[in-house]
Amino acid sequence: MHGEMNSDRVLTQHSAVVNTSEEFMEFALLIGLQILLVFNKSIIVYITNLRVQTMGKLRKNNSQMMQTNSTSIHLEKRTQHPHELSATSSVVSIDMYN
After folding, report:
1. What angle do CA 39, 40, 45 make, to 5 degrees?
2. Integer Cα distance of 78 and 72 in angstroms
3. CA–CA separation, 29 vs 49, rounded Å?
4. Distance between the two ends of the chain, CA-based, in angstroms?
5. Angle, CA of 26, 29 and 32, to the nearest 5°
6. Distance CA 29, CA 50 (A)
7. How far apart are CA 53 and CA 25, in angstroms?
8. Radius of gyration of the chain (CA)
9. Read out DSSP for 24-39?
10. Position with higher pLDDT, 32 vs 75
11. How is 59-75 classified by DSSP, letter by letter?
């Protein structure tokens, strides 16, 4: 009878340990999932910030290219006038001889 009580106590302690370890595993899983969710959100925020920065740089580059293109178009229009070309060439020739 004394042996039966002792074995019951061991079984009870064993099941308590199993319950505790299962609860711990569930707790660890929940903590792990929460960490993953936070990590996931921070990755999404980081990627979003990168996209915003990249879009900003692309827009800036595009506007710079548009300004460069418009400047070159104005220069091309200016060089198409023959009287301006002759005036420029004559000034250069005068500077060379003086």
Report:
1. 95
2. 10
3. 30
4. 129
5. 155
6. 31
7. 41
8. 40
9. HHHHHHHHHHHHHHHH
10. 32
11. HHHHHHHHHHHHHHHHH
* pLDDT classification of 12: cutoffs 50, 70, 90: low
Task: Compute the distance between CA of residue 34 and CA of residue 23 in angstroms, rounded to an integer.
Answer: 16
**How many helices (H) and strands (E) would you count in the chain?**
2, 0
Q: Which two tokens stand for residue 56?
A: 């900003």
Query: Could you tell me the two tokens for 16?
Result: 């308590």
Could you tell me the two tokens for 29?
């899983």
CA distances from 17 to 11, 14, 74 (A): 10, 5, 84
Mean pLDDT value across residues 69-86: 54
- Reading the block at residue 17, the tokens are 């340990």
Give residue 88's pLDDT. Answer: 47
Query: Look-up: residue for tokens 């070159």?
Result: 72
Contact between residue 84 and residue 78 where contact means Cβ atoms under 8 Å apart:
yes
